[in-house]
Amino acid sequence: MWSGPRNISTAMMRSWENRPDTVVVDEPLYAAYLARTGIDHPGRAEVLASQPTEEAAAVAALAAPLPAGRTVHYAKHMSHHVSEEDLSWTLAFRNVLLVRDPAEVVASYVRSREACEPDDIGLLQQLRLWQFWSAHGVEPPVIDAADFLRSPEAHLRWLCAWLGIGFTDAMLSWPAGPRASDGVWAPHWYAAVLSSTGFEPWRPRQVELSAHDAAVAQACRPAYELLHARRLQP
User: Fold this and answer.
1) To the nearest whole number, what is the mean pLDDT of the chain?
2) Measured between alpha carbons, how far is 177 from 219 in angstroms, rounded to an integer?
3) pLDDT of residue 191
4) What is residue 67's DSSP assignment?
5) What would the pLDDT profile of 54-80 be if each residue is shown by its tens digit?
6) From CA 152, how far away is CA 143, in angstroms rounded?
7) Is this structure's pTM higher than 0.85?
8) How many structural domains are present in the chain?
9) One Pfam match, by short name (predicted)?
10) How much of the chain is in helix, strand and coil states, percent to nearest 5?
């Protein structure tokens, strides 16, 4: 599942982790991204110490055998974490894009981190991933967060059918609180999801952005509109 930040990606991870047959991994390319770019994020040192800092090692771990009794491996990715030098490894997995209106993303993002540029919110990279997969004859499902929150069960049922696995009501709710699978960055970013017990109903949001932040959102809007037009409508 390839998302940008400040989306419903962690709630989606909770949903899949609540399946008894599923193992989840939280942003496995994060440390490699920080090491490669040198960018400063909250908890940077802790993230670098918690994961492989080479993308190849992180990717290899994604293909490791699953624990006994588990048959589904769910990876929550931030699309801007992946190096675009070689995306061929992604073709070995079933890929889904999770998008959100860029104005809403930017408004949420700047509440946790002061600086925000187009490359920070993942939409440009999501489009490049989509273009790469399309060039290889694969058109991944695109889920818009607003649509999903209006009908979580329908979307999850469609995804399960696409993957050839059974849907379970356990995907619609989960216990509140942290998980051992949460990345070490959870204290900086996961406040809302830690108190959640299910997907919040969709609601319209009033967004006010500075001139700079509005320009960031606008720079990402063409990518969003292209992906949004291809979104899943189960």
Assistant:
1) 95
2) 36
3) 87
4) P
5) 999 999 999 999 999 999 999 999 999
6) 11
7) yes
8) 1
9) Sulfotransfer_5
10) 50, 10, 40
